[in-house]
Amino acid sequence: MEIDRRIKIRHLRTFVEVARTGSVGRAAELMHVSQPAVSKTLAELEAVLGARLMDRNRIGVALTPVGQMFHSYASSSLAALRQGIDGVSDTLAAGGLRLAVGALPSVAARIVPDAAVEMGRVAPEVGLAIVTGPNGYLLSELANGSLDLVIGRLGNPEAMEGHSFSQLYSERISLVVRPGHPLVGNGDVTAISQYPIVFPNRDAAIRTLAEQFFIAQGIRRTGHRIETVAETFGRAYVRRTDAIWVISSGVVALDVTEGKLVELPIQMRETLGPVGLTMRGDGSPSPALRMFIEAIRRTVARLELAS
């Protein structure tokens, strides 16, 4: 249920202060406003809620039963808000604050740059250390405390022990080649075995899915095969040869859009896998990490990747 937008923080603060002091006059004095202003604010709050919260008498004010119930929620909400503001302020004021983020190649190329730009705008005091590498390595670094967050494909069950995962979107594998490759426009899967392959190595998150796809499609391992997760090598090698690059679609999305690489027209839906945020299961994220996570989510939504 959406909160009525007519209720402002000043309504809650005024109500809680009057309830605490038991006096409109005393609350007005402490808040450095006039008594009529306090009375008007209380009347506005009661009008929005459609209920009387306080009874006025010669001694002061007393909460009605409804007022007592509302007071418990209003006071706890203000306390939580103060803690949140203090937490962010303390975190950002700390010198040398840094977040260490592990990013698989697909998100390092497509998601993290925009999120880093937004983070630099809203929290320039927070430094970012972006680490890339195989999924297994990044998850091990997360487990030992070297990383605060890993963004990428869901890891295998053993590697995910003690971690929590929150999905952002689903991503498939792509088969890409250089422009002008003999297979451009050719959807014949069996022809793939005639060309060199750049394939994800054993530590790659997409390795198992890629292997399963090749087996299911009857693609024989006959040609020259290079196994690596180094996208800089894969990009350079494929542009210079007739090799076919087996890679997460996010890694080469910009290359395909700019026409530097071409995706083969082969149905890869069965290679879809979840991409998301992995954190240690113990404790809660710091205010700075929560801000970065929100920047990631907004980037995903802006790129219309959310699933």
TrEMBL record:
Presence of the UniProt keyword Kinase in the record: no
Keyword field contains Mitochondrion: no
UniProt feature coiled coil, ranges: none
SUPFAM superfamilies: Periplasmic binding protein-like II, Winged helix' DNA-binding domain
PROSITE patterns: HTH_LYSR
Superkingdom field: Bacteria
Domain HTH lysR-type: 7-64
Keywords per UniProt: DNA-binding, Transcription, Transcription regulation
InterPro entries (UniProt xref): HTH-type_LysR_regulators (IPR050950), LysR_HTH_N (IPR000847), LysR_subst-bd (IPR005119), TF_PcaQ (IPR012787), WH-like_DNA-bd_sf (IPR036388), WH_DNA-bd_sf (IPR036390)
Family under the similarity heading: Belongs to the LysR transcriptional regulatory family.
Name of this chain's protein: Pca operon transcription factor PcaQ
This protein's encoding gene: pcaQ
